[in-house]
Amino acid sequence: MTVTSTPTSSQFTERLTLHYDPGLKRNRFNQIANAIAATFSAVAVIPLFLVLIYVLIQGGRLLSLQLLTELPPAPGLEGGGIGNAIIGTIVVTLIASLIAIPVGVGGGVYLSEYAQNGWFSQFVRFGNDILAGVPSIISGVFIYSLIVATRVFFDQSFSAMAGGIALSVLMLPTVIKTTYEGLMLVPQEMRMGAYGVGASRFVTITQITLPAAFTPIATGVVLGIARAAGETAPLIFTALFSPFWPEGLFNPIATMSVLIFNFAIMPYEAQNELAWAASFVLVIMILGANLLARWISSASRS
């Protein structure tokens, strides 16, 4: 008769030690998987750093007060700056924000507070997701056909107003999505408590839920503005370009993205350098907007 020995407690503890053993098969596999994941992450981040470094080298050296305050020179001439394009970018982005933020926040409030499970709300969510993936040039063509070609604004065609409306279409999905998700994170107990003391739905939304969801909403708004400020295709079809200072909301206006597009393909070194300088300023603006969004998000968690 064969007698099997039962392992003692000391043998069991020795075999299943809690200390990390790099020689185990699962630990070696885990190290390999971590190395592969780290490599892929580095490959994904390297292009970002290369773009930033190259733009910094090519455009940062041209940064000066003259660059930020003067008009661009005529083709073939040197000097000048991108002052009109900076102002135009701010104006067009401001118009887009004034349109997209109220509409987007209102849409997010409707989806979160009024119609969470209805067929219409599901249709709106699906349409919003589709709109977020539509190429920006489609927005430009749409506004061109709707506003520019029809000359609905005082018989004017290309204008800063048309450019702002085109950019607002691109901002809407981001603002609606972040507003909806931010409001959904607000605990239901806060709403029930407000209703319990006699507050109406309107008062509950404006005084309780919206302030509680301010951080994600503000983050989404800043990200939407950053995306709108860097778009080119919609502005080519709507705002066009102007080599002069802005002459009103219903006239063509210069923007940095379109200036970069126009000057980068010119056969003149002075215009090519201005394109690099505008690229640097635009990247800094977008980078600053993204850092602001991250700061708002981190400030809420601290």
UniProtKB/TrEMBL annotation:
Keyword annotations of the record: Cell membrane, Membrane, Phosphate transport, Transmembrane, Transmembrane helix, Transport
Cell compartment(s), UniProt: Cell membrane
InterPro entries referenced in this protein's UniProt entry, alphabetically: MetI-like, MetI-like_sf, Phosphate_PstA, Phosphate_transprt_permease
SUPFAM superfamilies per the UniProt record, alphabetical: MetI-like
Residue spans crossing the bilayer: 35-57, 85-110, 130-154, 160-180, 248-268, 274-293
Domain ABC transmembrane type-1 intervals: 86-293
Membrane disposition: Multi-pass membrane protein
Domain of life: Bacteria
PANTHER family reported for this sequence: PHOSPHATE TRANSPORT SYSTEM PERMEASE PROTEIN PSTA
Family: Belongs to the binding-protein-dependent transport system permease family. CysTW subfamily.
Protein name: Phosphate transport system permease protein PstA
Classification lineage: Bacteria, Bacillati, Cyanobacteriota, Cyanophyceae, Synechococcales
